Prior knowledge:
The model has no long low-confidence stretch (mean pLDDT 90). The chain has one domain (2-11, 22-115). It has helices at 2-14, 22-45, 51-79, 86-115. By secondary structure, the chain is mainly alpha-helical. It is 76% helix and 0% strand.
Amino acid sequence: xxxxxxxxxxxxxxxxxxxxxxxxxxxxxxxxxxxxxxxxxxxxxxxxxxxxxxxxxxxxxxxxxxxxxxxxxxxxxxxxxxxxxxxxxxxxxxxxxxxxxxxxxxxxxxxxxxxxxxxxxxxxxx
Length: 126
């Protein structure tokens, strides 16, 4: 998922060079990221991973949905209609993309550390 997000950024940068099908590839990679995010959520939810990891995975999946929702007016504005405040939507789309890559990286690291028992949870104070 992290690498897909990275390639999404690369595709956005190449759009200014008018490469064929860059928008369609961006949509395809976004759909794959959405599927992976929900696959990760389903799989991590079934484990005994700490609650914080599960919450971050759930938030990441939610952010991928937000990206898809914001992508619709961006696509429509690019192809057919002029949408007001498109700059705000474009900025939020970029900002949330950065959130997704950050959250996915965080989950990948912490889940791996938990799975390999590389950290010890502090005892609960009562």
